[in-house]
Amino acid sequence: MLARRYVLQVVLVCLSLTGFAPACPAPGDVFREYTWYAETGDAGQALRVGGKQGQYHPDRGSAHGYVNAPVELPNEFDLQFALRAEVFVEKILCHDGTRGLALRVNDHDWIEVPECANIPEPQWDYQHHTYPIVPIPLDQLRRGMGNTFQMKVAAEHPWNWPQNLINGVHFRIYYDPAKKAHIRGRIVLAQAEGSSNEVVTVQLDAHSLTGKVRQVDYVGHYEDVNFEGDGEYTQWHYHFFHGTMMNHLGSAAQAPWSLGWDTKWVPDQQQPVQVAARIVDESGVIFMTEPENFTLNRRGVCVELCKPYDIPKTWVTRSSEHVERFDVRGNPQRAMALQLVWSSWSPGYMNGIYLNDVKVFDCEGPKYQYFAHRVTIDDVSMLRRGTNTLKTGKTPLHDGKMVHGMEVNWPGIMVLVRYEEK
Q1: Which domains does the chain have, with CATH numbers?
Q2: Cα–Cα distance measured from residue 202 to residue 50, given in angstroms and rounded to the nearest whole number
């Protein structure tokens, strides 16, 4: 049975206490982020890493650009008082069987980009869009302009066309907070008025600020759907597309730097929810806020997160129908609506989603591009307690020719069910 009362405690807690890897920013961190992505080109403005057999050269660019030549970053790197550096990439598997993604900075040695540990091995059998992080020695970076990177994949491939797509490359530099000039501040949270109490207002305490603010990005650590592609449902939830933060709590671009966080589809939590703010000052230096406590009571509803399993390999709809499963613990007779949540590539070629063999959705999104889906389904009559199935239809021929189809990324199509409590 789902909990009769939904209680969320929103707490700002130092990330180092949560057991997550120190590669991600923690409260109290001071850092910059330098971002590159392809502003023009095909494949959804992505960098193609790899190429067809005969064109593939691991250490130099091909004539067609499928293996990139060194890319020069347009940023002036600030390394004063730097402590450490890392690169994280917006990686799409693209061609199943592609492995061995690696990068190098300023012509230094190649560094392996790790595969996601939560995806079954071999990870290149499952479509995925992930954000792997690679530590970079500080002495490999140059002060000012002129920093470059290059990427490659292994030549080994089952059908002779290894290829990853890269939607963005981010260099993150961490600084000594005792020496690096940066803004300081803290956030305050308030429960919205109304019977549902589903909206939390988050803003900066103006009296705590020590400098001029350019932007504030609010992020939360809690259990929710996994757009990050790593199968970790409880984490700091945010990710990037072409360098822009997505699926975080929200951003504010002007004083009082206020945000209304709608928790309508936030799953019920047994553990506290944590919230933090990334405050960006006018020079681009980012500070992550210190802890603050808040409690939210949500009355009259509960939300169940149904995690998919039996995820198909090479989930691309041009090849066939594909089926996953998920379990429902709540009473479907009290369900008011559900959401289907997933990330994909080229969903413009999708051909329907079927819940327990009943078509509940047709198509949305672009062709040859990444897309983050959140589809609300009001008719939940086909939902069952216990095991349910979700199926994607096979993409038909277009004008007698095979087209790409939709790629469904790990961890598959997630389901949120919203129930009425009595």
Answers
A1: 6-29+178-299 (2.60.40.10), 32-175 (2.60.120), 303-420 (2.60.120.230)
A2: 44
